Amino acid sequence: MVHLILVSHHPALAQALVELAAQVSADPATIHTAAGIDDADNPIGTDAVRIMNAIDAADNPDGILILVDLGSAILSAQTALDLVDPDVAARCRIAAAPFVEGALSAAVAAASGADLVTVAREAEGALLAKQLALGVTTPVLATAAVPAGEAATITLTNPHGLHARPAARLVAALAPFAASLTLVKDGQSADPRSLNQLTALQARQGDSLTLYADGADSAAALAAFRDLAAANFGDSTTETPNLPTAPISAALYHDHPPVIPADLRADRAAFTAAVDAWRAHLGDLRKYTSARYGDDAGDIFAAQQQLLDELAANTLARAENETVAAWRAETAAAIEQFAAIRDPYLRARVLDFADLADGVLASLAHLPPPPYPEDSPFILATARLYPSAAAVLPDNCVAVILDEDDSHSHSAILCRHAARPLLSGINTGAPDGTVLTLNPQPQEQP
What is the CA radius of gyration of the chain? Predict the structure, then answer.
């Protein structure tokens, strides 16, 4: 099985990506890291000796794919290949691939038993999904005549379509079969053993997908496809079925979030400590929500940890000398980029970036979490609810009122997991303590 080495300037970034890629890998032990340098004052960088040691640990007959995060990591990786035995170097390849997406695509391809050339090709084509989501390019998918062989057609029921995790499950399920396989949607065809091509199909809930199989194992491959589709590709078709339907009456309570000082400043060490503290907090939230609502809820904060590490690494690489200014600029750019996406589900990730932006600054300023009433039931009124706050709302918070619609956000998903109604567009000008009666799920009138 092909091994992967993740070469990053930041150890936390590499480790977070290992955890993410491990979710789609058949053997997480095949994913290695070589990140950071031995300099307590400035640990950001890459070390050829560390990469060389990782190559020695990862060496195997099937080969090694090396993925790098920033330009100077390429030079370090090339230097490391000059240091190892030439026979070992011949089994290695440095991928010209996006770091995060490339690692995930490579992990899926390697898990399917693909050779080094195929794993590298999958990694190097992994940017297509992001380009499609942002309308940057046009997918290069076949539009040929109907493929040969037997066929099976299903209707996709996954609420958010064939996104990364269900697509990875499909790749893994079809990998063992010797048949020639083609997946078709709306006249476009893709290789169902390629995560990149599956993503390029942009299959959404309600889409019709047809798998064509020709040759040996055709019947078995089609049966596996039908079985996986019947199981919603491993995803749940509903987030929470148990929202209350009866009217809710409780006292109104307006949110009082901490105010982050406009003149907040920090050196690199203080900023890094604040990032580490918020990362640890996200880890606690992941454990708490996973234990209370299941792994799907906990994965929200696993994803936030990954975003945090990317944003922090980018911040430290920016030209701004002052880290708080650089952090604000970096997170503002991410928010602007996602706010322009048409897909409402992806656009709602803006709230995750804002949550991270303010979370690190609140940690840096040592601001306490907002207070809530401790005993009696209350309805929370707030301009916006961050996922990190939604996860820990007390049980006596019986509903949330937002100024604007937020139904696609992770905050809304967490509220649904907690069977806590979240409503928007309601006049909250009444003072705290005003008793409100809400109908969370109004019935249709005959």
Answer: 24
CB 310 within 8 A of CB 13: yes
SS3 321: coil
A 10 A CB-CB count for 102 gives: 27
In this prediction, residue 139 has a pLDDT band, given cuts at 50, 70 and 90, of: very low
Catalytic position from the list 9, 10, 32, 281? 9
For residues 166-191, average pLDDT? 84
Distance CA 397, CA 421 (A): 10
Q: Is the dihedral of CA 342, 345, 350, 351 positive or negative?
A: positive
The superfamily CATH assigns to domain 3-134 is: Phosphotransferase system, mannose-type IIA component (3.40.50.510)
User: pLDDT digit string (tens) for 196-236?
Assistant: 677 667 788 888 999 999 988 899 999 999 999 988 887 76
Give every CB contact of residue 380 below 8 A, 6+ residues apart in sequence.
253, 254, 255, 372, 393, 397, 399, 400, 401
The answer to whether 438 and 421 have CB atoms below 8 angstroms apart is yes
Q: Which of 3, 10, 32, 410 is flagged as catalytic? A: 410
CATH topology of domain 150-234: Histidine-containing Protein; Chain: A; (3.30.1340)
40: tokens are 């307590």
Q: Count the neighbouring beta carbons within 10 Å of the beta carbon of residue 20.
A: 21
| 366 catalytic residue (yes or no) | no
- Residues of each domain in the chain carrying CATH 3.40.50.510: 3-134
d(CA 223, CA 429): 58
Residue among 18, 81, 17 nearest 55 (CA) = 81
CATH 1.10.274.10 for the 258-365 domain, yes or no: yes
Percent of the chain topping pLDDT 70: 88
Domain(s) labelled CATH 1.10.274.10 in the chain stretch across: 258-365
Cβ neighbour number for residue 264 with a 10 Å cutoff? 15
The pair of structure tokens assigned to 90 is: 């011949």
**Mean pLDDT along residues 118-128:** 81
Residue type, 134: L
Among residues 3, 10, 163, 281, the one annotated as catalytic is: 163
Q: Is 163 a catalytic residue?
A: yes
Residue 113: closest CA among 192, 169, 193: 193
Question: Is 10 marked active-site?
Answer: no
